[in-house]
Specification:
globular, mainly beta, 1 helix
Length: 105
């Protein structure tokens, strides 16, 4: 989604692999325990506040873990909320997605 909006990604020196990756939700301040498997991240210097806002960050290295897009109703996270390692730290994302679909129908 970030690439489709013209944002850039960078290859990470050490990717995020496995469970127990701490991610901070910037709107609530809560830390979610996530499962991840990726080696690229959205480049922070390519962000444009007219395109997207950062919603989540990785607490191990500060990389972007979530975006809310401004030009269309969409959001993304760079981890697996369905994996439930926390055990249900990120389940609210599915409710947000369903609510967004209902608003857009």
């Amino acid at each position: 989604m970030a690439l489709s909006e013209g944002l850039k990604t960078t290859k990470m020196f050490v990717g995020h692999r496995g469970a127990n990756q701490p991610v901070k939700n910037l709107s609530t301040g809560l830390v979610e325990i996530s499962t991840q498997n990726h080696g690229f991240a959205v480049a922070e210097d390519s962000l444009d506040e007219k395109i997207a806002e950062v919603t989540h960050i990785n607490l191990n290295d500060g990389t972007i873990e979530g975006l809310k897009f401004k030009n269309f109703p969409g959001f993304s996270v760079q981890y697996h909320p369905e994996a439930s390692p926390g055990p249900h730290d990120s389940a609210y994302l599915f409710d947000q997605f369903i609510d967004m679909m209902k608003e857009q129908k």
